[in-house]
User: Which sequence fits this backbone?
């Protein structure tokens, strides 16, 4: 394809992806009043009434301090939820644009990388949502007795989304280490030798990335990350062993310089050559 054809293909793929995103956003905008809003407010509303604004009779709610605050919050949540709902469709458009230039093994690795990375991101987001109530309870209880914490909708939604993204992205880091090992840029020996530093930096990373900055959320992020990094180290060990055996079989690295390689010295069968017709003399 020419450059113009590539740009035309990219334009069409991006247009289709944006169309699917718009459809998903519209569905999420309608869904907001039919369960999505309650799902988002649940970690806050499940807290003890003494720790939040509103009691059992008045219900639970978030404050909005400006006229357009509710519209912007609903659009922000709908856009993010629409991106998640339409992810299989716009990811397919991206994959359809990239895959013609990939080899067969690259396609196989690409599909596996996308599936595993999506699973890890979803697992991190789910863990963040499940632990959000405990983190809020710990943080809001530090205000002491006689203080009612009334959270605004922009602050709470922004905090929730940042926490979900932080957990999801952090769970991708061990997968990046495995990907670097597969391409030969990072060896198992380096990872194994740096295991203590990796675990220490993981805790430091969790302390800086978590929006709550409390020990509970920090350890809740750092613990699974350490487990995933250890799993990644073991995966790189298996990959490096297989790569070493393959190199030894192909290039005979384990043999000494004066040792003969295990080649088959038996003569091979020659293929019959095509017969040449000599009945007719060549013309000059």
Assistant:
């Amino acid at each position: 394809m020419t450059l113009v054809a590539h740009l035309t293909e990219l334009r069409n793929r991006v247009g289709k992806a944006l169309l699917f995103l718009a459809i998903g956003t519209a569905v999420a905008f309608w869904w907001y009043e039919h369960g999505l809003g309650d799902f988002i407010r649940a970690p806050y509303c499940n807290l003890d009434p003494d720790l939040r604004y509103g009691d059992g009779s008045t219900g639970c709610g978030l404050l909005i301090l400006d006229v357009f605050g509710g519209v912007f919050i609903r659009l922000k949540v709908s856009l993010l939820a629409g991106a998640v709902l339409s992810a299989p469709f716009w990811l397919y458009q991206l994959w359809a644009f990239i895959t013609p230039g990939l080899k067969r093994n690259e396609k196989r690795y690409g599909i596996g990388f996308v599936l595993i990375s999506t699973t890890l991101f979803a697992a991190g987001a789910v863990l963040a949502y499940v632990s959000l109530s405990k983190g809020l309870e710990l943080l809001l209880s530090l205000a002491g007795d006689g203080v009612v914490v009334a959270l605004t909708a922009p602050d709470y939604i922004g905090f929730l989304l940042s926490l979900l993204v932080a957990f999801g992205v952090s769970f991708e880091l061990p997968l990046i280490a495995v990907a670097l090992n597969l391409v030969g840029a990072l060896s198992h020996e380096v990872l194994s030798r740096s295991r203590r530093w990796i675990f220490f930096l993981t805790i430091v990373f969790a302390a800086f990335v978590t929006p709550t900055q409390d020990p509970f959320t920090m350890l809740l992020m750092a613990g699974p990350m350490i487990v995933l990094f250890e799993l990644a180290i073991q995966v790189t060990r298996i990959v490096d062993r297989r790569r070493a055996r393959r190199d030894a079989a192909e290039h005979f690295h384990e043999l000494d310089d004066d040792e003969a390689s295990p080649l088959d010295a038996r003569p091979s069968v020659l293929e019959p050559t095509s017969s040449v017709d000599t009945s007719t003399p060549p013309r000059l």
